[in-house]
Amino acid sequence: NEDKGEPQQCQNRSLFSRWHLSLFFSLFLCAGGWSPGSEDHRPWLQLDLRDRLEITAIATQGRWGSSDWVNSYHLQYSDSGRTWRSYRQDDVPWTFPGNTDTDSVVQHKLLHSIRTRYLRLVPLEGSPSGGMGLRLEIYGCTYKSDVADFDGRSALLYRFNQKSTSTVKNVISLRFRSRQAEGVLVHGEGQRGDYITLELQRGRLALHLNLDDAKPQSSGRHTSVMSGSLLDDHLWHSVLIERFNKQVNFTVDRDTQHFRTQGQEDSLEVDYELSFGGIPLPGKPGTFLRENFHGCLENLYYNGVNVIDMAKRRKPQIYTGNVTFSCSESQPVSVTFLSSTASYLAVLADPGMEGLSLRLQFRTWNRDSRLFYVPLTHGPEPASLVLQISEGSIQLSLRGPPQDTTQVFTGERISHSPGQSICENQSHWTRSCNLSLLTSDCRSPSYDTLFALMSTGSCEKPHAGYQGCLRLIFINNQPVNLGRIQQDRPANFSQLSFDICSIRDRCVPNFCEHGGVCYQSWDNFLCNCSGTGYTGATCHNPIYERSCEAYRKTGSPAGIFTVDPDGSGPLEHTHVNCTLADDKIWTVVGHDHLQPVRVQGSTPRSPYVLIFNYSISPYHLRSLVASSEHCQQKVTYRCRKSRLFDTWDGTPLSWWLDRDGVKRTYWGGILPGVQQCSCSLEGNCRDMNYFCNCDADQDVWVNDTGLLSYKDHLPLSEIAIGDTNRTGSQALFQIGPLRCYGDRFFWNSASFFAESSYLHFPTLQAELSMDISFYFKTSAPSGLFLENVGVRDFIRLELSSPSIVTFTFDLGDGPVVLTVRSPMPLNDRQWHHVRAERNVMEASLQVDLLPLQLVEATPEGQYRLQLNSQLFVGGAPTTQKGFLGCLRALSINGMTFDLNERAKMTPGMNSGCPGHCSSDSLCHNGGRCVENRNSYVCDCTHTAFDGPKCRTAISASFERGTSLTYALQEPFSVMRNQDAKQLQSGTYTESVKSRENVAFGFLTRHGPALLLTAQSNDQRYMAITLTQNGSLQIWYRLNQERGPDTFSPGSASLADGQFHWIRMNREGRELYVQVSPVTSLPLFPSSLVAGTDITDEEVLRAGSRGFIGCLSSFQFNEAAPLKAALQNKGSSLVTYMLILYYIALNINDSSKSDRGNAPLKKAAQNDSALIGGEEPQEATLLCTMFSRNDAQ
């Protein structure tokens, strides 16, 4: 579409629209300006700069003497004037704000300069009082360019002056424009096996690097890194490779990856030469080992050497093979179908043709869409030919009368690697889509051939219209002239973008965190978090608790648990042993030498050395120790004629290394820096002339056992014993596991008593994702919790009124506000929990258990949060509405903030928080601490427990046929925000809103049995059963059109008369189950498995047998069904059948349970046995089957 505008003299309106403007072109000083013709509905202004130049800024002004201006616009640029590229920031087509009046000048300095010959300004919105019009000025400079054109059979060889070169530093920079998705750009190798290769693979750049010898022991030491996507788009891309020793920076366009090479060596040895554009076979000119690069290279530098410039000057170091030094501009014209419901292109067919052939290239992410449709006949029995993509495969159908469809051809999945469709992880120009067909009865195609017309057939699976790019369209070997259609036939297309392929790879860079796999369609992307241990829209949120202490708060007993010590931070989850002792939950981490070790024959110069490898990584150990209130490690040391210190000068004869490898000479029970043992502190050493029992050097066994408890030195990493070489000398030591308890951050708090006071911390590193959680209590009506700002961007969390918490952020394109309104005041001097999250897909805010507020991000909006100031907590320099009250347990992106220590150094606040709710008044199992005037109480309402501190389990026993039905008040989560068609597609429709959290304990000797079923009115359900052999099975039927799915955590029998604890949560199609005591693994993550051999009858069979046994502490999401049933017997939500017995039982420490303190209650109006006094041999717990009836 060519615009109509005024020539450079700004006088009469011309019928020609393409202006050839010089650099620094200006219309500001002349009358008039540019405006499109009134009939032009898609105008643009195109500038020919005569040569490739570097554009750095653009300025606009309204059209002189009128009320015309441009409110906003896009920029596009091109080298050929045929294929265009949008100017982007953060990989989003950037919308430039324009003018709001006629005379003001609005200038924009480009964040990234443009190197181009042609520039196109596309107005988006004009003046509301007039129309579109502008005056324009372009700023820039000349651009030096050395270009080489490779035809797919050519290469440049850069030969070294010596036989080989060995370097510890390399810098390679270039720009390239490729005509195909494969091809070698750079290659060099040495006889030792070193090599470096940069090549295109399926439209992405791969860098292969090996610095080690090609020896068997070095196999697998090479490093390969992928970057970029869709790089075969005939557009320029920049590459920079920087290597120093083993550290490498690999930049493609503006995306940089930092990595270290594998192996031992740090130098790259290359023999003879480097090749560019291909890998020639030695001794055979014109023969290449890999597919050559086909396209242009520009400004190619190797370690500061301009290779193309040397080739142009025919330097002897450069061998030029079929390379030309100008870049050909043959680029196919593309068209983009922008909408899957409204885009189409109608092409007139020749009424006289007796057959039809079609050839085209397409590029899309969508798995299902219609590419081509042509009606063959009309009337009562119409026929048509349809070419479509169905589940990633090309499908050709001949369709006749209703319900009469013939599959002419079904191709293989358009795949570039096993199991990957073009619509899943890759998108490339498909070249082999050729169709040739002669209709059998010589009927000619009539009317128009329609591309991407949406199917509306009621008897077939509907296919959306095509959404993607097309190019090189040939019908009966005649090219389709897209430019002429655009100019002459505007009625024959809709929602198309000509001359540009607007496809975008939303998975590069990958916004899925913690190893999540990215899948995409044209409009958005989704993260598959299966097996990562994380959940949420971008796999940001941990599934596991952070510590044993956190598991204890949820009511989980002792056992082996999976913990994620830094939450959403970079550390992976790991397994730890949680044990209960002295009313504390201890995290126990073992190592590989827990047994006693006897030492003889060692000297201080040649000591016996033992290194300890712990069951979790050093990073996890450091995080565990830092977050715990107390840690200790027992060192058992017995000796006979073996000293710890030289009795003459105190020189250590034995020692140990701390976690950082620092030598330590103090022993158990003594503070750091004191070369003594615990007997010295206790005053009971065997010989009071010495500070350790062993230093008495007696020929008898003595003991210097003690606890190491200085956290900064734990755990012990190595021990050295050096005085056992004398006759009769020997030592026996045993290093115990690391043991930690408490959470030093959960009650870490600060009190703010001046509105002008605040804490400050370093700038948040939260460009792409951020989660914030904390507790607050206040009596003030409003106040600022925290704030961090940038030039334009900011985040802010505040109590905006007594009952409203507000989360506001701005990414530079306008503020987003999330608000949670509480039905009760939040300034009630009680603790309230706030959690806010923001990522590239959505933002959310939740306060206590109030409904989650969520807003989705716009697909084409800004997604980077760019902050540069300090993080202010409790107030900010720019506001007088500081927070008055207490904040505690502040955590951002898994990093905890020490408010207590920082408050000690800040005026206007105190460390800690006054009140009765503290670590000494902890409510267990998720109970909420509520402060009174002189004490506190634990609110157990939303837990499955009862008692003063929510430690008493609500438990009951069922006989055969006993059941309990509970009507959930909230919609069953499997059905919430879900559609049956969405649920069955799996990959693209995984929902982060569909979830269950279930926890309960049970005991039985009978199987099969049904422990739980939750069912909706439309027969979708979940169930937890025991099989005939007692193994656990979990059932889900999420789709009525398919059988149930099942998951079996293990084959061990749980119907063994022992108490078992089950904790389960489901997120989308990912299920996590924990069984304690552990039967196989502590946790069983897996995707739901389709149950092809499973029927609903098996669930019914288990239900018909009932459940004989006991269950306890039943929690289903926020509901506690058993507790509600037994404590609210008149509730309409509960239905009883037969006999149900009830006992309150403290299960946190069965050896110290409150026996006899909880009166027994009769739960049904039938005969019952009263259970009281001592705890029975088999713990009496809840045994229940409950189902859901939708509550209105």
Write the layout of secondary structure elements.
Layout: E1 45-61, E2 70-78, E3 85-86, E4 88-89, E5 92-93, E6 96-97, E7 106-126, E8 135-142, E9 147-151, E10 155-167, E11 169-178, E12 183-189, E13 195-201, E14 204-210, E15 223-227, E16 237-244, E17 247-252, E18 255-260, E19 268-276, E20 294-302, E21 305-306, H1 307-312, E22 318-321, E23 334-337, E24 344-348, E25 355-363, E26 369-377, E27 383-390, E28 393-399, E29 405-413, E30 415-417, E31 420-421, E32 430-438, E33 448-451, E34 468-475, E35 478-479, H2 482-488, E36 493-494, E37 496-498, E38 517-520, E39 525-528, E40 534-535, E41 541-542, H3 548-553, E42 559-563, E43 574-581, E44 584-589, E45 597-599, E46 608-611, H4 618-627, E47 630-640, E48 655-657, E49 663-664, H5 678-682, E50 702-703, E51 706-708, E52 718-721, E53 730-741, E54 749-752, E55 759-761, E56 770-777, E57 783-789, E58 794-801, E59 804-810, E60 815-821, E61 832-838, E62 842-847, E63 853-856, E64 871-873, E65 885-892, E66 895-896, H6 899-904, E67 909-911, E68 928-931, E69 936-939, E70 945-946, E71 952-958, E72 963-966, H7 980-985, E73 995-1004, ...
Antiparallel strand pairs: 1-7, 1-8, 2-3, 2-6, 2-7, 4-5, 9-20, 10-19, 10-22, 11-16, 11-20, 12-13, 12-19, 13-14, 14-15, 16-17, 17-18, 20-21, 23-34, 23-37, 24-33, 24-36, 25-32, 25-34, 26-27, 26-33, 27-28, 28-29, 30-31, 34-35, 38-39, 40-41, 42-43, 43-44, 44-53, 45-53, 46-52, 47-50, 47-51, 47-53, ...
Pfam families: F5_F8_type_C, Laminin_G_2
Family: Belongs to the neurexin family.
Protein name: Contactin associated protein-like 5a
